[in-house]
Amino acid sequence: MPSKPGPKSGNTGETMESEEQPVQPAPPPAKESPTLVKRRRLLNRWSIFALIFVSAVATVLYVSNVIAINRLLKETDTLRKSVDSIRIVNHSLRTEVYRLQSSERITRIATERLGMIPPPKAPTVLSPR
């Protein structure tokens, strides 16, 4: 078979020749025993079944986790609302206590209802000896 001229190298005018190697056809695939083929198919089926089973379990766990988180978020929201309402009630009760403890109110009730009169002079405190 004649060789094809290759790329020229430099100014010498020489060409490089490349040799072509004949391509050998691939050997025919060896026939596998029917038992081996059956085992591979069975193994493939079990692998697919295991993959589907693991995927199903993962999906169930994920969905149950999402449901649990949603339930906890609702419970947290309910508790926050309850705490807020209790704080409002607590604030109103503190305001009521301050109003009932005011000295003006106590003095007014003492003079009007009980007939007490305020002292003309502030009491003096004696220290024990």
Task: Spell out the key features of this protein.
rod-shaped, 129 residues, two-stranded antiparallel sheet, mainly alpha, 2 helices
Task: Characterise this structure.
Helix content is 60%, strand content 5%. With 129 residues, the protein is mostly helical. It has a domain at 34-112. Strand 1 and strand 2 form a beta hairpin. The protein is rod-shaped and about 130 Å long.
List the helices and strands and how they pair.
Blueprint: E1 5-8, E2 15-17, H1 34-100, H2 103-112
Antiparallel strand pairs: 1-2
Query: Strand pairing plus helix content: what structural class?
Result: mainly alpha
Distance between the amino and carboxyl termini: 138 Å
Low-confidence stretches: none
Order of helices and strands: EEHH
Give the biggest beta sheet: 2 strands, antiparallel
Number of helices: 2
Q: Strands of the largest sheet, in order across it?
A: 1-2
Proportion of residues in helical segments = 55-70%
- The coarse overall form would be rod-shaped
Keywords: Membrane, Transmembrane, Transmembrane helix
Protein name: Cell division protein FtsL
Pfam families: DivIC
InterPro entries: FtsL/DivIC (IPR007060)
Summarize the structure.
Residues 1-34 are annotated as: Disordered. By secondary structure, the protein is mainly α. Helix content is 60%, strand content 5%.
